[in-house]
Structures are given as C-alpha cells and as structure tokens.
Design goal:
heterodimer, A: mainly beta, six-stranded mixed β-sheet, five-stranded antiparallel β-sheet, 11 strands, B: mainly beta, seven-stranded mixed β-sheet, four-stranded antiparallel β-sheet, globular
C-alpha cells in the first residue's frame, strides 16, 4: 500500500459545483498534513494546512480524520480558475519529517 | 525579491550521461530541498541541504548527489542516467532546517528528458 493515496481523477465539474477530494495515508503517526495546488507545468504551491479541528479558507474547506487516516478537501462554488491538480502532502513522523506527496487529483471545471 | 530560481529550465541527455542541475534559494533562505516529480506523480523528496551538508535523504540511490555552496545555492547531480530519471526536478528553499513542507518555496523546476 502506498504511503499517501489519491484518486487521480480527473474530476470534471461545471462552474458553481461543489467537489470533494479525499486522500488516505498509511502511517498513523503522521504529524502534519497539507493540500497543495499545481497548475499544468508549474511548481506546486501551498493551498492550505489541514488541522484536526478542520479549517476553512473562503470556498475551500479541509478536514482531517485521524481515526480513518484520511484528509479531505472540499471546494464550493467551483470557478474555472480552480482547474488544477490538487496534491495532498503528509509529513511523516519519526524524527525525519520527510514530506510525502500523493500523486494528485486532477480537477477540470468547465463552463 | 527574487524567488527560487533553477537552471536550466529544460535538458535532454542520453542514458549513461551525467547531469548537474542548479538552484538559487529565495533571498533570506538557507536550506534547499530537492524533489523528483515523474509524469503523473507527486513530487518525491530526494534530499535536503543545510549548512553545506546533506541533512535528510529520501529513498534515492547514490547516483543522486548534491552540494550546497556558502551562498546557499545548491546543485543536484545525477550520474549514469536511466530512462526512468526523466522527470521534473524541483528545488524548494526554506529559512530553517525543519522539514515542514509548508515552509518551503518551490522553484519552477528543471525538466529532464533522458533518451
């Protein structure tokens, strides 16, 4: 089983739709979690951190479920500009804190 | 304020050759991490340099080596290139040696194609 798994998609949704992605991780001792956005042929950029209590940033909501070992990203009122690949990142524990990226989920928002 | 810069932007090599990629960190940053991103995959951590030493290393063979200079810039060297080394190589800089990825700023990457 991969350390961090994501459905690669693509998720094809109309403007204004609500879409959610999940990401599962295998190491129960993982310490910190993030969502990154990567546009085509560009570098990844931090979208938001994911906290146990859940956090929201405008149209974006991130949740962490430690019991089931997954994180989620919800995007409300999708915009064309939300089209990108969304990478989940888990900082592994055990002293090294090496970040592990999922393969990313592709989102296409169409008019 | 220049962000993270990488050179070259694109590179084509043949199997067995050696390649050197370069990275200049964001102003004020002293730590450089390198990642390999194969097509359709997420970035994979290669190693991190701080104070001119390799501080952490991911699961990559010894063919992958690096260096950090006193001005904090860094090089990634790959020897005996394989077709599977074709990827986008990302450099990320940060201002401390902690590996929390959220403190890292990524450069635009170098696209390496091995034929």
């Amino acid at each position: 089983r991969k350390e961090v798994e994501q459905d690669p998609g693509p998720f094809n949704v109309p403007e204004g739709a609500t879409v959610a992605f999940n990401c599962t991780y295998s190491n129960s001792a993982s310490q910190s979690f993030f969502w990154y956005r990567q546009d085509c042929r560009k570098e990844p950029k931090l979208l938001m951190s994911v906290y146990s209590s859940g956090n929201e940033d405008g149209r974006f909501t991130a949740q962490l479920n430690r019991a089931s070992q997954y994180i989620s990203l919800l995007i409300r009122d999708s915009k064309l500009s939300d089209s990108a690949t969304y990478l989940c990142v888990v900082n592994q524990a055990g002293g090294s804190y090496i970040p592990t990226f999922g393969r990313g989920t592709s989102l296409i928002v169409h008019p | 304020d220049a962000g993270v810069t990488q050179s070259p932007t694109h590179l084509i090599k043949t199997r067995g050759q050696q390649v050197t990629l370069r990275c200049s960190p964001k102003s004020g940053h002293d730590t450089v991490s390198w990642y390999q991103q194969a097509l359709g995959q997420g970035p994979q951590f290669i190693f991190q340099y701080y104070e001119e030493e390799e501080r952490q290393r991911g699961n990559f063979p010894d063919r992958f080596s690096g260096h950090q200079f006193p001005n904090y810039s860094s090089e990634l060297n790959v020897n005996a290139l394989l077709l599977g080394d074709s990827a986008l190589y990302l450099c990320a800089s940060s201002s401390q040696t902690g590996l929390s990825v959220k403190t890292q700023y990524f450069g635009p990457g170098t696209r390496l194609l091995v034929l």
